[in-house]
Amino acid sequence: MGEILIDYRNVEISRGENVILQNITFQQEKGEFLYIIGKVGSGKSTLLKTLYAEMPIDKGEAFILDYNLRKIKEKHIPMLRRKVGIVFQDFKLLTDRSVNKNLEFVLKATGWKDNDAINERIIEVLDEVGMTKKGYKMPYQLSGGEQQRIVIARALLNSPEIILADEPTGNLDSDSGHKIVQLLHEICGQGTAVIMTTHNYQLVSDFPSKVKRCHKGEFCDCENDF
Q: Which residues contact 80 (CB under 8 A, 6 or more apart)?
């Protein structure tokens, strides 16, 4: 067994009295790729939010990178989030500045001060996602697939141990979506754990890996019956 980065045991997530998901039990190892599938509104994104302490956990045991998510202190949440890269469906790029300035903003916000080191890291992550020559462009000058590659580059800036990708292909055409999932698998192959939520079961078939399902308030193992 490899190094366990995430350990959830009988976790329950609620909003008020409304139980969103229950019986969440799974482990995520270093360098492992996990799909979480389910229909829109089934709780996939909510589960991801618990992993970076955006949503509280009501019951069960939940650990990520040695942080106890049921007891984590507010002051420790920024440190956790620096170790977890997040890829959003709707990009969340700053539209008033270039790709390079978007990435520079994140590095400075997370404590980087040396301009040479910042520039070097930006070049490294853009190269990793195949966007080396796009740093000077504004987000609106990029296609959806290119913007999502920049979002993945942003997620990689602080060399996270885990990437959480929330419906990363939801706003992309089929070809662009395939390339993004392929890229995430390549990143995973280099040792970064990846959790990707999706309701696109074709992608799961085309790039097989471990699968869990959110279905009718339950979190369960999933055979290839989708």
A: 52, 53, 64, 65, 67, 72
Whether residue 98 contacts residue 135, with contact meaning beta carbons closer than 8 Å, is answered with: yes
Sign (positive or negative) of CA dihedral 15, 20, 23, 26: negative
Tokens of 35: 């799909």
Q: What's the distance, CA 142 to chain centroid? A: 21
- State if pTM tops 0.85: yes
For residues 153 and 106, what is the distance between their CA atoms, to the nearest angstrom? 11
pLDDT over 70 at 224, yes or no: no
Do the Cβ atoms of 51 and 21 come closer than 8 Å? no
pLDDT in tens, 126-142: 999 999 999 999 999 99
Question: What confidence tier does 153 reach under pLDDT thresholds 50, 70, 90?
Answer: very high
